[in-house]
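WARN  no MSA supplied for this record, continuing single-sequence
INFO  ligand: iron/sulfur cluster
INFO  echoing inputs
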Amino acid sequence: MADSLKSKNAPEEKLQVSRRGFLKTGAAAAAIGVLGAIKAPSKVAEAAVSNYEYITPKKGQWSKLKPEPNYGGASVSYAEHNDQWLGTSKIVGTVKKFKEKDMGFALVAQGLLGPKAQAGFYTIGIRHPLSDALGWAISPIFGENIVDGQPKPEKLPIPDPEQMSMHIKDVAYYLRADEVGIGKMPEYGYYSDKMNPPMMGIIGGMVPRGTPLQDVPFTEKMPYVIVVAVEQHLETYLASTGYDGISDSQSFRCYHATANISIIMAKYIRELGYHARAHHFGNYGAVMAPCLIAAGMGELTRTGDCVAHPRMGFRNKVAAITTDLPLVPDKPIDFGMADFCRVCNKCADNCPSQAITHDRDMVDYNGYLRWNSDFKKCAQFRAGNDQGVSCGVCIKVCPWSSKESSWFHEAGIWIGSKGETASSLLKGIDDMFGYGTEIVDKYKWWLEWPELYKFEY
Ligand code: SF4
Ligand code: SF4
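INFO  complex generated
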């Protein structure tokens, strides 16, 4: 049985059909028949070609364990970034670093987005027993002495940085990362100042509510960033409303996994004699969006600074390792996300806090172009949600995030990466099937305790 997600911001229900029936009638084949007719190139790609050179990566560049990338069927081009572009993000001015205490959840913690959000945030990690357990497992590994340290005094020789890059990716896959990329670290990819107490101390309920946040200058400058991603559980998203009791655990499960992978990889690199610092949910010194783009793991989306991967969408969480280990970085990717977001609006239609803009085009934001979505409204809603814990509705509904692995969906993703006209077609098919907004009860495995989600403020 499948029910449907109804947020107060959701549009009128449109025609929906059963996927199974559609596939049986052969209509899928007819729809896929449009593939041959789709020739429109991505506008972003057209713009990009004149600004940077596309390259064809060598076969086997990625790793021995995973010699080819899995883009879920998307048509992907590779880009060389420069002063005017980071991947497909256009740089239009000076991109300034910002303080960690100016990001959404830090504003919430300081009480700047209202008393309800502040009260909710100080208990967000501990209200649901499962996210509490996952957060507890991250809490011993967020200290500076864990994420960073001195390298061994003797550097081991690295005669071939390309071979070392493949090896580092193999290490990440061996440690159970779902995706990994290596980027040239952008100068603006760090916070200017970290905050003290750190985020993990607040979320874990380790510091009293209202504790002032101090700025601690963050001065690291490393040439490379390794980014590791772990997928959030697809079936759980299919069964969830996106803002019920499991929502926070969906994030914490991946934060825990990526935190462990990142600290082990950083320590391993230091054992080779090179500097390496892990950046994970409990202790970020790097800002993940530019790192992800630089490492060829996605593009910006309508949500603002959230980066979508061609196969996983943004149904994943990431950690990173900044390092001076000799590596060969990957290239940023272009799979037509901007064209798709321009015609889609599905996250904006369903966001319960109306944080995501319906504007057609991007605007100048801190020296680069992105959609004008409001991260403060999002943080306020997630922290103050007392119908569940946190929120991931935009992840659930995004056509790039919520797909089972099959030839049909891969074909759809290929269509979606082929420009605006093709994107409109895929968005129409996605809506017709009720993708993203359906609630598939058969996958619901977790327990709910609504009384635990309420809090005093
Ligand atoms: S996570 Fe934030 S932006 Fe996404 S749907 Fe929820 S409130 Fe909206
Ligand atoms: S739901 Fe649609 S508009 Fe929103 S990020 Fe995904 S593709 Fe873009």
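The radius of gyration is 21 Å.
INFO  checksum written, moving to next record
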